[in-house]
Amino acid sequence: MELCSFLTLDSFITDPLTHDFMRKALLMSSLVAAVCGFLSSYLTLKGWALMGDAVSHSVMPGVVVAYALGLPFSLGAFIFGVGSVALIGFIKQKSRVKEDTVIGLVFTGFFALGIVLVSKIKSNIDLHSILFGSPLGISLSDVKQTIFISLLVVILLSIFRKDLMLYCFDPRHAKTVGINVFFLHYLLLTCLSLAAVVGLQSVGIILVVAMLITPGATAYLLTDKFDNMTVISVLSAIISSLIGIYVSFWFDLETGGSIVLAQTFIFLFAFLFAPRYGIFKLKKLFAGYK
Amino acid sequence: METINYQNFRIEAENICVDYNGKVALYDANLRLQPGQICGLVGMNGAGKTTFFNALTGFVNISKGKIRINGESVRSAQKDQTIAYVPQNEGIDSQFPISVWDVVMMGRYGSMNIFRCPRESDVQAVKDAIERVDLTDHLSTPIGNLSGGQRKRTFLARAIAQRASILLLDEPFSGVDIRTEKLISELFIQFKNEGKTILLSTHDMIHVREFCDLVLLINKTVVAYGETSEVFTPENITTTFGGISPDFLFGPES
């Protein structure tokens, strides 16, 4: 019986590993989670949650067009991701409409375009897997692309780690000491588009923004050191992915949703019990018993 | 034509204009500062003080006019680490997960390699700077746990570590304790003796009289500029603050 088999922790963990698709899903989702978690520290500190939402939704038509033309879907997603941000900037500058309104209308516009395109070019695109992710059905070419993009983003973020931190913290100082702020701005946007592309395989376009902000927000509640924040963010993202996939396997749940829910629960845990910034401030509670 | 030797001036701003999407923030502003001079920048909120700073650091582009820093462009001043900017306490995210040490180290980023690996000399510069602002006990304290005065000193230390010859300070005395105020004024005298040029914005008229050799009164453009003793008159101040008399601004007893 299924119920009996996961009563022992050992088989709960090892049984799914006997399936090839599960091993692949666990590996790829962990990689994707690590990339998104890394970036997440920067996005939450920069206050780019809405931007993350916008970019991740805007990549939709890019993915569809790329599929239709037989191009790597990451290329299409990248063009539309960066394009949406450029368009947001342009409309904001040329009109009196407020920024959050512009962001909202541009990304929903792109997203709608994507949905319309899917309905027109039905044949080989699975709308469901784009919207909700399909980590269990990931193809070999997708695996290669995901690994390539993930490594690229991790390398870029690692090289410019400190500059990006400075850019998020005090762009004016960065500019004053001759650091190319324009470049950093677009570097962060590029990484955001690329991370959205790999993230959408795990949890789908609709939920990918969670991968980009929740781990960072969780880590932010747990530490006052930037480096620790990055590590915690990456770890919590990976752990959530593993939990999400296992739970979805045993209980037959939607995988993307399970991963994001796991992240949300970890965040809630930090929100309630974080030593310094949690509601119940565990540190103080323990100190009271001494 | 008169030839000006730009080398004599640390800052040379000539008829500069700044506009944001067609909205004029500053126009026809002039400023010349020499080494060792301290100049107060006085004006209402929205009078263009921050815009002036932004133009000098190259954070915004000027639409007209010319800025020379040590006789060179703003771009090369950035590369040479010539200008340090000390932000207002409100201008920074105090909840950012970063320690005093890390903030001060950011003053060295511009002269480091691309990975920003601190060399022995960078570490020494940061240590010295933190000692000068008396924060050695708080090296690894997150800036969120500092008082307003300590935070202000952290950013001053960053400017010191940068070894800039020009310091731009946005409201250096706002929201600081007496001890910090005393330390900052002592540092100003040291900076002056080191030949640094200081431009500071302030709301506090007493500080202008106390520290500033020169004063620049602005209200979208220069209202008056010159020696503090000559220019800092009630009439000029009234004009700067849009017709409100200094009595109203500083209280009747001053």
Could you describe the 3D structure shown?
Chain A: Keywords: Membrane, Transmembrane, Transmembrane helix, Transport. The complex is a heterodimer of chains A (290) and B (254). Helix content of chain A is 82%, strand content 0%. With 290 residues, chain A is an all-alpha fold. Chain A is globular and about 60 Å long. Chain A starts with a helix and ends with a helix. The mean pLDDT of chain A is 89. Chain B has a six-stranded mixed beta sheet with strand order 5-6-7-3-8-9, with helices on both faces. The longest helix of chain B is centred in the last third of the chain and has 16 residues, at 178-193. Chain B is built from ten helices and nine strands. In chain B, helix 4 packs across helix 5 (148-162). With 254 residues, chain B is α/β, with parallel strands linked by helices. Chain B is 35% helix and 22% strand. The chains are: A mainly alpha (290), B alpha/beta (254). The A-B interface holds A 45, 93, 159, 162-163, 165-166, 168-179, 220, 223-226, 228-229 and B 21, 54, 57-59, 75, 78-81, 83-85, 87, 91-93, 96-99, 102, 106-107, 109-111, 114-116, 142, 144-145, 158, 162.
Number of domains of chain B: 2
Q: Which architecture name of chain A does CATH use?
A: Orthogonal Bundle
Number of DSSP helical runs of chain A: 15
Radius of gyration of chain B: 18 Å
Stretches with pLDDT under 50, minimum 5 residues of chain A = none
Q: Could you say which structural class the secondary elements and strand pairing of chain A correspond to?
A: mainly alpha
**CATH fold-level assignment of the largest domain in chain B:** Rossmann fold
Average pLDDT figure of chain B? 90
Give the proportion of residues in helices of chain A. over 70%
Query: Which stretches of chain B are poorly predicted, pLDDT < 50 over at least 5 residues?
Result: none
Strand arrangement across the biggest beta sheet of chain B: 5-6-7-3-8-9
Order of helices and strands of chain B: EEEHEHEHHHEHEHEEHHH
How many domains make up the 3D coordinates of chain A?
1
- Biggest sheet details of chain B: 6 strands, mixed
Please report the distance between the alpha carbons of the first and last residues of chain B: 46 Å
* Cα shape of chain A: globular
The string of secondary-structure elements of chain A, in order, is: HHHHHHHHHHHHHHH
Strand content of chain A: under 5%
Membrane topology (chain A): Multi-pass membrane protein
Protein name (chain A): ABC transporter component
Keywords (chain A): Membrane, Transmembrane, Transmembrane helix, Transport
Subcellular location (chain A): Cell membrane; Membrane
